[in-house]
Specification:
By secondary structure, the chain is α/β, with parallel strands linked by helices. The chain contains 4 helices and 8 strands.
Length: 175
């Protein structure tokens, strides 16, 4: 597991195209309605550049600034030329001025954090749960063979998944 000073977190692990973002878009409003302040760390295999060529922030970064923080009336962005691992991302979210009650993690499917595995048997990918004790449950659209003791949740039922997440958080299972 990650350092104990990190806020409770829950990963969403699945192969690309399974519906991690779709589920999170349905789940986040339900968790917020339950009174949680959420943070989110999303892993991407694609290049990420928030600067647009020729804009001041991009020009300042290209001139050699290691970090650029752009502040607008309602948003703040930190642009840093480095490689971030999950532990660094979680620590950054945990020490934010409005630290979240729960950090949701999309991607990093093998990270040492509690995770919900999303699975669609039609995609032909193997389940992670049989070999991964940190997977708390499997949410899927067709029942796969899951290991004994690993709950099976309906992937299309965000209410049921939100109830599980709230239960895990209340029971201290998310860190």
């Amino acid at each position: 597991m990650l350092h104990p000073s990190v806020r409770p977190c829950l990963g969403f692990a699945a192969c690309s195209g399974t519906g991690k973002t779709t589920l999170l878009l349905e789940l986040i409003p339900r968790l917020v309605a339950a009174g949680l302040r959420l943070g989110l760390a999303k892993h991407s295999h694609h290049a990420l550049d928030l600067d647009r060529t020729g804009k001041d922030s991009q020009r300042l970064r290209m001139a050699g600034a290691a970090q650029v923080v752009v502040a607008a009336p309602r948003r703040l962005a930190r642009i840093e030329a480095c490689s971030r691992n999950l532990a660094e991302c979680l620590a950054l979210l945990a020490r934010a001025p409005a630290a979240p009650d729960l950090i949701l993690v999309e991607g990093w499917k093998h990270a040492p954090i509690p995770r919900l595995e999303l699975h669609r048997p039609a995609l032909g990918q193997p389940l992670l749960a049989p070999a991964d004790p940190l997977i708390l449950a499997v949410a899927c659209d067709a029942p796969p063979h899951t290991p004994a003791g690993v709950p099976l949740l309906p992937l299309g039922d965000a209410d049921a998944i939100a109830a599980c997440v709230l239960g895990w958080l209340a029971a201290g299972r998310l860190g």
